[in-house]
Write a structure and sequence with these properties.
By secondary structure, this protein is α+β, with helices and mostly antiparallel strands. Helices cover about 25% and strands about 20% of the residues.
């Protein structure tokens, strides 16, 4: 989410579930009967496009792109256990020097869908291709670490010297600094192999050469994409994908509310389908009266952290006590109701920056806030800051999708009780991006957003939202938070290879950032999805808050 741009927009207002704690840790819904091999799985999508170009994709490792493309590493996730990085095309990497150099060795006998061998040179070409401006838009965690600088991709005849391929099975990455999460980075889309010399055409996503269990059969723009079996995929060499259905068909441009109605009715081909969009709060309430449909709704145990970002570079929000007043002024219970109608559907109130389901996360509440807020405490802090009468004329901007307006109005009403006067400005997605992520001198004071990491590490929670390098220029540090100490701590944690040690460092950074109060964590959202009755193994693990497309099959 980071599925960078995708998640930052789509996960605004998503429904995601708390981990074990205040609520029942068992996610509602039935994953379905154990699936067999064969049949046609249908995925009903709101989107009118399906991007199968790994350089352009921000797809999570367990969703659509993973059906067609393998990466160097993969994710193994299950209910009740943290996600783990596991071998995919290669092993999970080795570093001889504390995380600055990483070497991966590919398995023997791997082939593309055209029957040609997959080599380390193809992986290198795929990573290099992600630097080409014409193929931008994908996740870019790797680019600075590989010292890309002015590198514009391989089509101009240049190679990236920081990637070495001494033989067809070995690939070595020489990073600009130590980076303990590099095995996770190697699971992102750009680390899918592309046959060396190919992929120059703009419509490569429609005819991509596959390394996963499926290849593109037919691609009808805006209507349907049919994936058929890749005859050269070997299930014995893939521990990440089940490859169970004979075909996977994406039906594009579907209205999400209609999809839920169709899947609830459960007739015809819809029995073999699931919806890729969240089931809305209104529809969840309706499904309670349909026992069959209710049993086929699966709700996540983890999700995004929704938050109110405070523009720390503008007065009066450049005053620490003013920012801390917001921690008490916001009514998180009211935000829950505005989000999903009930606290149970919305998700637990939040107090940390690291999302639930991330290994090493520590639960704490630095401000010991009440869910309903404490306006008198907020007023006292404002008075200490030199604003005894409160503050006014603050602008809250938002992306108008996913009932953001209702959520903003709940925040606005709570702030008013603490003598904080806010006006709301709703923007279309592109205008919102221009105003927040892209602007060098923004006019907003506050904005609502949410974030789910792109890979299962606190690194992907903290760095994109709070490193000073992520201010403007398309970055997601919408609080414009800049603290040299925190930047140093982030780099130190990123350089730590031992996961347990790194987790402790990230938890400490979470606390340190919250001391500065650049954002108010609101809730840990819940995501709910519905499936047809013949779809099996349809589960949502503790991370991420999406079904694992790679394990779903058709029940006989």
């Amino acid at each position: 989410m980071s599925s960078k741009k995708f998640l930052a927009i789509v996960l605004i207002g998503a429904l995601g579930a708390p981990a074990c704690g205040a609520n029942d840790p068992k996610a509602p819904g039935d994953a379905g009967a154990k699936p067999g091999k064969g049949g046609t799985l249908r995925i009903l999508s709101e989107s009118r496009t399906l991007n199968l170009d790994p350089a352009k994709s921000q797809s999570l490792a367990i969703t659509s792109l993973g059906l067609v493309h393998r990466r160097l590493t993969g994710w193994q996730n299950a209910v009740g256990r943290p996600a783990k990085v596991v071998p995919d095309l290669a092993d999970t990497g080795k570093t001889p020097d504390g995380g600055k150099t990483w070497t991966f060795v590919l398995q023997d006998g791997l082939k593309f869908s055209d029957g040609t061998p997959i080599t380390s040179a193809d992986v290198k070409w795929g990573v290099e291709r992600s630097f080409a401006p014409a193929f931008g838009g994908g996740l870019g965690y790797h680019k600075d670490l590989l010292g890309g600088g002015d590198y514009k991709g391989p089509f101009e005849g240049r190679e990236l010297d920081s990637i070495e391929t001494p033989d067809p099975k070995t690939i070595t990455f020489k990073l600009t600094r130590p980076y303990g999460d590099w095995p996770w980075i190697a699971s992102t889309p750009a680390f899918a192999p592309v046959p060396k010399g190919k992929g120059a055409e703009a419509d490569y996503h429609e005819r991509a050469v596959a390394s996963g269990p499926y290849q593109v059969g037919t691609y009808t723009k805006g209507v349907e994409v049919e994936l058929t079996r890749n005859p050269h995929w070997d299930p014995a060499k893939d521990q990440v994908r089940g490859g169970l259905p004979d075909e996977v068909v994406f039906q594009l441009g579907q209205d999400a509310s209609v999809v839920s109605q169709r899947l609830a009715a459960d007739s015809g081909d819809d029995r073999f389908a699931f919806g890729s969009s969240f089931v809305s709060p209104a529809q969840l309430a309706q499904l309670q009266a349909n026992p069959s449909a209710k049993s086929r709704v699966v709700t996540s145990k983890s999700g995004a952290v929704a938050y109110l970002a405070l523009n720390t570079q503008k007065a009066p929000l450049n005053n620490l006590k003013v920012r801390q007043a917001f921690q008490y002024a916001v009514n998180k219970s009211a935000y829950q109701i505005a989000s999903a109608g009930t606290a149970q559907l919305a998700g637990d109130t939040a107090s940390t920056l690291i999302t639930q389901g991330i290994e090493g996360r520590e639960q704490f509440d630095l401000y010991q806030t009440k869910p309903e807020g404490d306006p008198e405490k907020a007023k006292a802090l404002l008075a200490e800051a030199g604003f005894p009468g409160g503050v006014e004329n603050l602008a809250l901007v938002l992306n108008k999708s996913n009932n953001q307006t209702e959520k903003a109005e709940a925040v606005q009403a709570a702030l008013a009780r603490a003598n904080i006067k806010v006006t709301i400005r709703s923007l279309e997605a592109d205008a919102y991006e221009t105003e927040t992520n892209l602007s060098e001198n923004p006019n907003y004071d506050l904005t609502l957003s949410s974030w789910q990491p792109d890979f299962p590490s606190a690194n992907a929670n903290i760095q994109p939202l709070f490193a000073s390098s992520e201010i403007g220029k398309g970055g997601y540090n919408t609080s414009r938070y800049s603290n040299p100490e925190v930047d140093r701590l982030i780099e130190e944690a990123q350089s730590t290879v031992d996961a347990a040690e790194a987790g402790k460092k990230w938890a400490a950074i979470d606390r340190r950032i919250m001391q500065d109060s650049p954002v108010v964590p609101l809730i840990y959202t819940r995501n709910s999805f519905i499936r047809g009755s013949q779809v099996g193994n349809f589960f949502i693990a503790d991370f991420p808050a999406y079904p694992n497309y790679l394990q779903v099959g058709i029940s006989k």
